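Pilot study result, target chain (240 residues):
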Amino acid sequence: MNRNYLDWGEPIEVLDADEGPNSCLLPQEDPLREKLMNTGPDAMSDQELLAILLNGGMRSTHTRTLATELLEYLDQEKGIPPVKELSLFPGMGKIKACSIVAMLEFGRRRWGAAGTRIKQPQDIYPLIRHHADRRQERFICLSLNGAHEILAVRIVTIGLVNRTIVHPREVFADPILDRASAVIVAHNHPSGQLTPSAEDDEITRRLKTAAEILGLHFLDHLIFSDTAYLSYRQTGRLSF
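Predicted structure:
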């Protein structure tokens, strides 16, 4: 029932000298680029996409490590980080840091979530699904205006292996600054199981109550994996 809301191959050649001692070699065959060409970007994880951007001139083992570290860093950033900060990652270098920052800004300008109108839970899922492969829970808050158009999508907290610590002040601080009229929250279950825990229910209850006090419409809480999601609103779980 829908309710409307209103590889890494062997290195063969030297590339950028700017990239430091860990750089310099390009794989002869790149399974990730082949995967991108054959299946498209939607079938790839964030780590794989970053690894493709980083792989020019770096050994594959270092690329995997750097992509993982960079992803952890970006998950905790509210905006696009400056080139100077990214270039501090071992093996990154200024050229790759510039490429990453340019890619993030270009994507934000052309295809960012801002302005997307949310009518039903299936409108939310594509905006957050790429977080499903994280080994720790990501608790996400979406700020919406009065027309239920996305103002911002942010990670609020990064939790432990199977749970996250969430407080209303952390969740609603940015939506208030956004002058949002409504909010939607979501978090991934690394286990892949979508059944809400007692803690999930308690967090949802607290957030819904706090949102009402602040004059925000609490539209939904989604629990998601890389293949599916559960909507508190669709399943009637918001009637506290």
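One observation from the pilot: The two ends are 20 Å apart (CA to CA). A full batch analysis is planned for the follow-on phase.
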